[in-house]
Amino acid sequence: MATAGAMPLMAEAVAPADAAAAEQGEGEFFLVRDGAAVAVYVDRADDPAVVLAARALLADIERVSDVRPRLVRSVPERAGALLVVGTVGSNAVIDGLLARRRLDASGVEGRWEASVTQVVDRPRPGIGRALVIAGSDRRGTVYGVYDTSERIGVSPWHWWADVPVERRDSISVPAGPFLRREPSVRYRGIFINDEQNLTTWSHRTQEPDKNIGPETYKRVFELLLRLKANYLWPAMHPYSDFFNKYRANPELADRYGIVIGSSHPEAILRNGVHEWEPWAEEHRGGDGSLPEYDYTVNPRVISDYWRARAKQNAGFESCWTVGMRGLHDSGIQTRYADTVPEKVEVMNDIIQDQRRILTEEVGEAAELQIFIPYKEVLELYNAGVKVPEDVTLIWVDDNHGNMRQLPNAEEQERAGGNGIYYHLSYWGAPKSYLWLDTTQMSKVWQELRRVYEHGVDRMWIFNVGDLKSIENGLSFCMDMAWDVDRWQAANVEQRMAEWAGRQFGRRHGRAIAAIRAEYYRLAAGRRPEFIEPGLFSLIHHGDEGARRMSAYRHLLDRVRQLGATLPDAYRDAFYELVEYPVHGAYLMNLKYDRADRNALAVRQKRGAGTNRYADLAEEAHAAEQKITRHYNTRTADGKWDGIVNPYPTEIPKAPGRPEVSRVERSTASGLGLAAEGNEAGADRPLLFSSYTRDRRFIDVYNTGFAEFGWRARASRPWVRLSSTHGNITDQQRIWAQIDWKRVPEGTHEATVTFSGAGGQERVLLRVHNAGERARRDARGFVEAHGYLSIVAAHFDDHARRGRARWETVRGLGRHAAAVHTAPSTAAPVTENIAARAPELRYRVRFTSTGTFPVTVFRLPSLDQRGHRRVALALDDGEVSVLAGQAEASGEAWERNVTEGVEKLTGEVTVAQAGEHSLRLFMVDPAIAVDQIVVDTGGLPDTYLAPPESYHPRFDKGNGPTA
Fold it and tell me: How far is CA 87 from CA 92, 230, 272, in A?
């Protein structure tokens, strides 16, 4: 369906039912025309969820046109046109059309949550034309209605992200038919978790007498339905009111059509954080002691505890979590079961007891049950817990977006099917990320595609933390859950452009998508919440830290330039969805970059520069706090008061104010110098290659506070300096480059002498000019500066083998793209790898010989039942298998998820300088590679990989810049 008008409608306005039908065209159906709207008919027999969605459509039509249609519950005797909304079997008009074969519902009837939208001429005597939205069930109808809202220009995020609605005088949709098939995943939903900020906001702006209650959940339920979701794990933490505290909550969920479940520590819809303690108090033992939440100690009291909730919520559409963990996300307590086999038997008893309770209290309506093998429960499941066949197994990621384990062939055949619990936000070890949406969409796509290929299609639940800031990530996950085949490796990045275009207009979609892609790429190097002192090198590779901050500054400039072109109506949405995340991430990085430079200045014994960087670090922290206040107090006129806070009081915080040092001011001055590659001085010479055509920096600084003049003189005419003299109070960065047209071929040395404040310092330059012809004739990556660095997506050739392949995935990893092996169900290749495994080839030129360390930067993924391996070879040499971390445990896993890469190390032997072929092989499927680095001598140890080596096809013509 298309849009001839694109605005939200309002609520109950007012024209004759057939006024908008006066000039209905054959190819389109007008919902609003000439100030009049068609009436909307919903049968009295239909579900309350359909009525609520229809009323929302009335409001959406009014938002778009300032005209509100009438909602009618009986069929008008006469109408030029009518909008018919209903469910097959619950709507007289729809059922009549089906009986007379006037409505094609062949792809709808008997399906799950499917619908069709179609214009039917003369559907009944007295009615000229009808637009029919017919659903296979109540949610199928609801999704058809909300899909129509989006197609007339009302974003699902119109309330939650203040996306404006473009006003139009008329609204029309194509005649159709338009079929919405069954979703790829049956149950699709979110877990509101770690929700202190959401609770603060809800209490301040929605329900002052509650900490998340019915008024807030109404907003959540409607958002879920607009996103085609149907499932919720409600807020659970101590600062939030538990869901069943207010009877209106489950009642409203049922009216909206939302299935309510509960997370892994909340068996049988019980919130242990709030509900166990009062229950225990009411069920003290005969000796007055409080019962423990331990099934080996108090099985009867705990069983009754579960039974009470099963009885209370038996009438609602619910999902029942079986199994048991400790209170508030802690491990299961089993005082009288010490060994793993004993604990397995206890878990089996627990599940049998819970199943008996559900059969007795809920009956057939308890069909939807899940078991979540999470943390210690996964160990017990793998050790032999007997989960009934009709219970859905919910597989869990490592909390950082990497699926731990997926169902094997036997588990894929279970009647209850399989689902996933996946984190877009996380509180816990080794680090929490609760502030911003920073997981790359391509990473999410990669993992969700993998789980679907393993038959996981019954339930997908996503941890969204406080909900706000996860708008894009959540939308993408729901899109994938609805139609998993819509996006592939080649076009997943285009989805962001489409989504941004729906929020801000198609002409801005690509620009916003490019901004978000770069934002995610920088976060892939290190999430803003994971920033800590001393991460990025300030002295190597053109100043690794400065290069990163330059990328952030450039990105923020693009954001501001684009934002300035948007109409005022879009400013709030743009701030929430684009500007604040970029600006916040920039400032979080900036304050620690400035603090790192302050620490370096202390080590260099600087004067004024030390205090200057201390001031800049604190200014950046203050600026970060300022933009958060703006979000909470000024955006949308203060609508979001309290919703965003990097530093909540009760849950893990983002990195706060960094520590800085200051030195006492003096009247002295002194010349100091640090050439690139040196923390101070110039012991390590500056290296230049005609292939990479680098520029190198020299920091000239003041060891005191009094200004002084300085001069620089190069010993060779082909050395070019960005500045040769000036006055310094704190520091100045000088860039050295080579005029390659003037330098002779071969290897040469030059010096640059700096003088000032009565001192003198010299810097040595080593320059290798292979000549323009050698550069022009290079066929692949060329070794220089003691290394060979390759972005994995920049391969020269590839080979598909054994129904498996390497694919390029744009928007994945630390660069513009990474490569991964597909499909995820491919068999591992462990024998005759060079002939049987899918392969990527990289042409390389070595100028050195010997056996060299090689590092493959793998993007973390897990397989607790298998392995995480790739293989390397040089030319036709021996194939070396590199094995990575397969389990979510230990220091290696903690380092991998914090850094976003795993560094697999091996060796290559170069017997002869010249042209070679570096070969990368798949061993295990669903494994991704970001970069490959060969250390041929003297490569410094830095957080990020060195800049990519020269390649005639991929070189951008620039060396590393600040």
Answer: 9, 17, 38
Determine how many CB atoms are found less than 10 A away from the CB of residue 412.
Answer: 15
| CA distances from residue 84 to 43, 124, 132, 587 in whole angstroms, order as listed | 9, 12, 5, 52
Residue among 384, 392, 345, 352 nearest 368 (CA) = 392
The reported pTM is: 0.95
Q: What is the mean pLDDT of the chain?
A: 95
- CB neighbours of 892 closer than 8 A, spacing ≥ 6? 885, 902
Please, what is the end-to-end C-alpha distance for the chain in angstroms? 48
So what's the pLDDT on residue 25? Answer: 53
Give the integer Cα–Cα distance in Å for 898 and 494.
27
Q: Identify the structural domains of the chain with CATH numbers, from first to last.
A: 28-180 (3.30.379.10), 187-272+299-489 (3.20.20.520), 513-638 (1.20.58.2150), 671-771 (2.60.40.10), 778-935 (2.60.120.1620)
Chain CA centroid to CA 304, Å: 40
Average pLDDT (590-614) is 98
Peptide bond into 156 cis (omega under 30): no
How far apart, in whole angstroms, are the C-alpha atoms of residue 11 and residue 59? 4
Count CB neighbours of 406 within 10 A.
Answer: 24
- Indicate whether 24 pLDDT > 90: no
What is the DSSP code string of 706-742?
A: S-EEEEEEESSTTEEES-SEEEESSEEEEEEEE-TTT
pLDDT grade for 176, boundaries at 50, 70 and 90? confident
Joined together, the tokens standing for residue 94 give 């729809």
341-349: long-range contacts at Cβ-Cβ below 8 A with a sequence spacing of 24 or more? 341/383, 341/384, 343/380, 344/380, 344/383, 344/384, 344/385, 346/295, 346/296, 347/323, 347/377, 347/380, 347/385, 348/385, 348/386, 349/295, 349/299
**Sorting pLDDT into bands at 50, 70 and 90, what band is 26?**
low
Rounded Cα–Cα distance for residues 600 and 593 (Å)? 11
Q: List the one residue out of 864, 899, 889 whose CA is nearest residue 429.
A: 889
Separation of CA 272 from chain center: 29
pLDDT at 957: 55
Does an H or E element contain 256, and which?
helix 248-256
Q: Report phi then psi at 812, rounded to 5.
A: -115, 130
Question: Around Cβ 273, how many Cβ atoms within 10 Å?
Answer: 18
Question: CA-to-CA distance for 267 and 263, rounded, in angstroms?
Answer: 8
Handedness of CA 479, 480, 486, 489 (dihedral sign): positive
> pLDDT value at position 27?
79
Residue 1 has pLDDT above 50, yes or no: no
Q: What is the pLDDT of residue 347?
A: 98
Answer yes or no: are the C-beta atoms of 65 and 168 closer than 8 Å. Answer: yes
Q: Give CA–CA dist 728/702, Å, rounded.
A: 7
Residue 11 pLDDT exceeds 90: no
Give residue-wise pLDDT tens across range 198-229: 999 999 999 999 999 999 999 999 999 999 99
Give the long-range contacts of residues 902-906, CB within 8 A, separation 24 or more.
Answer: 902/857, 902/858, 902/859, 902/860, 902/868, 903/855, 903/856, 903/857, 903/858, 904/855, 904/856, 904/857, 904/858, 904/870, 905/853, 905/854, 905/855, 905/856, 906/853, 906/854, 906/856, 906/872, 906/880, 906/882
Amino acid at 68: R
| pLDDT score for 2 | 35
Q: Rounded mean pLDDT of 373-384?
A: 95
Q: State which H helix or E strand residue 777 sits in.
A: helix 772-777
Q: Is the dihedral of CA 155, 158, 163, 166 positive or negative?
A: positive
Residue pair 236/248 in contact (Cβ under 8 Å)? The answer is no
- Report DSSP state, residue 579: I
**CB distance 533 to 595 below 8 Å:** yes
Mean pLDDT, rounded, for 931-955 = 96
Mean local confidence (pLDDT), 620-624: 98
Residues in the chain: 962
Peptide bond before residue 828 is cis, with ω within 30 degrees of 0: no
